[in-house]
Design a protein that fits this description.
Number of helices: 1
CATH architecture of the domain at 7-83 and 414-505: Sandwich
Helix content: under 10%
Structural class: mainly beta
Distance between the termini: 17 Å
Largest sheet: 7 strands, antiparallel
Strand content: over 45%
CATH topology of the domain at 7-83 and 414-505: Jelly Rolls
């Protein structure tokens, strides 16, 4: 029986939302927390009690997905567990990964080219060595030399290499006019456009090969990205342009048919935003993403399509600053019909969904997504990835027709840590019960937890059997304000919409 003055109210808490709403709490995404044995950052549950390191909302190993009914127009938002990565093959046991490419121009367009090695790298076609290079590989790209499919490779010792089926082995570019052979420090890796091969140096000078060759270079065939006096970072092809990144600017060059250097600048679209490193650039289709800064300081994630926009929130920017510019790398991935920009910031992985325009967090015992590539040809629809922290020397795989919820055989946990709720009043509330709203899954258990002291400590309320039509728990204690959370560790899919329940509020 309720005490005099108590009234029963209903509440509903969406299981999806922004990554966090607190800049001051964003430094808590560190590798020191986690479900013991599973490595989940953000909350540690040991028995019936725990301590939460991160304040406010945290969505780990899950992402928000909005679904709108085309007939009724009704919109629903779900939290969906990210798919995992299995082992595809092991080219170089004992080594870390450096670079990854799907060689689209050779054969059926499905060869997986990878680089492994922490000091000197070896380039692999599947598990077959194409040859070793000196130094650590900084990038693998592809081009056609006339009609010959050709791989190009750059190294951190400023050498460059190529491979084609005619040569049959990795071969160094030895032309004395190639900038790396002429006392220049290379910035990033190759870009290819209109039969020319381009490379930038750290002075912001862009060098072009002779037409239809990777081995011949002319001393006078160069241009400069010098609208601003900054240092060169690297470049990529962006539609019909060379998109050239400096420490404080982005410039665009196009083919004007000039000699000896054929390209010239389009100064009208120069952007006064720099890039932190060539490793912090990623692309999805015709959209380019990078981590950069303005002369006023800070770090943000930017997007360029028809124009430039900042996609990171102040809270994400705070995490980037804490990670440090030299510890940030980026890649991209398409899976489950969505496009993801993956930002590895030191020991934290922040992931942006291009369609949903929302951030979330990935965590695993060893991040397996340093570089990702995909193949969608005929019946082959898979993603591949490598890790730069694991020394297993593996190429990992996501088979989009058979997704798993394990990373290299280890089950990971999705965590939905929600913002505190007070039901519209600070009066003491007696939490009568709570129910999971979402998909039913066989052999699928979720753990419900809460914090009543602004995430200083947490407590485990019990488990919810998601195979039941109405998974729920009752008699959940009392507090004036509470943050609920849900953790899903089963090797099954997960899609949740909300937690809903009732509470009784006291009259005083």
């Amino acid at each position: 029986m309720k005490a005099p003055g108590q009234k029963t109210k209903e509440f509903r808490l969406p299981l999806a939302g922004s990554l966090t709403n607190r800049t001051s709490g964003s430094d808590s995404l560190t590798p020191t927390g986690g479900y013991v044995g599973l490595g989940v950052v953000g909350v540690m549950i040991v028995g019936m009690s725990s301590s939460i390191l991160g304040k406010d909302q945290r969505f780990t190993n899950c992402f928000s997905r909005s679904v709108t009914d085309a007939v009724t127009g009704q919109k629903r938002i779900f939290s969906i567990k990210r798919p995992g990565f299995g082992t595809n093959n092991t080219p170089a046991a004992g080594e870390i990964g450096n670079a990854l490419l799907v060689w689209t121009g050779e054969g059926t367009g499905q060869k997986i080219i990878s680089s492994f090695g922490s000091t000197n790298s070896t380039i692999y076609d599947g598990t077959t060595s194409l040859g070793a290079i000196t130094g650590k590989c900084t990038g693998i790209t592809e081009t056609f030399v006339s009609t010959t499919p050709t791989l190009t490779v750059t190294s951190d010792d400023d050498t460059a290499w190529y491979y084609d089926t005619g040569v049959g082995v990795m071969t160094q570019i030895t032309d004395g006019q190639f900038p790396g052979n002429n006392s220049k420090t290379l910035a990033g890796t190759f870009a290819h456009l209109d039969g020319f091969n381009f490379i930038m140096d750290t002075d912001g000078v862009i060098w072009a090969s002779d037409l239809n060759t990777v081995t011949s270079w002319t001393a006078t065939s160069f241009g400069s990205a010098n609208n601003y006096p900054d240092k060169g970072i690297g470049m990529v092809q962006h539609r019909g342009f060379l998109m050239c990144f400096g420490t404080e600017s982005v410039e665009f060059l196009y083919n004007a048919g000039l000699t000896p250097f054929p390209f010239t600048k389009n100064t009208a679209i120069t952007q006064k935003v720099g890039c932190v490193s060539a490793d912090a650039i990623a692309q999805i289709g015709d959209t380019t993403f990078w981590c950069g800064s303005s002369p006023q300081g800070g770090l943000s994630i930017f997007q360029y399509d028809q124009g430039i926009s900042r996609i990171s929130t102040p809270e994400v920017d705070s995490m980037l600053i804490l990670a440090g510019a030299s510890n940030i790398s980026m890649t991209s991935l398409r899976v489950m019909g969505l496009s993801f920009v993956i930002v590895v910031a030191a020991n934290t992985t922040l992931v942006y969904c291009m369609e949903e325009k929302n951030w979330h967090h990935w965590s695993s015992a060893a991040p397996l997504w340093y570089k990702c590539v995909g193949v969608s040809i005929g019946g082959t629809m898979v993603n591949y990835s490598i890790s730069k922290t694991s020394t297993d020397g593996k190429v990992y795989i996501q088979n989009q027709t058979g997704l798993v919820w394990r990373d290299d055989g280890t089950i990971y946990t999705a965590v939905m840590q929600l913002a505190p709720t007070d039901g519209g009043t600070k009066r003491r509330k007696f939490w009568e019960g709570i129910e999971f709203v979402g998909d039913q899954e066989e052999d699928s258990i979720a753990t419900l937890f809460y914090s009543d002291d602004d995430y200083q400590t947490t407590h485990n309320l019990g488990t919810l059997d998601l195979s039941l039509p109405r998974p729920r728990l009752k008699r959940l204690g009392s507090s004036s304000r509470r943050a609920f959370g849900l953790a899903h560790s089963a090797d099954t899919p997960f899609r949740g919409e909300a937690l809903e329940g009732t509470f009784s509020a006291s009259g005083v």
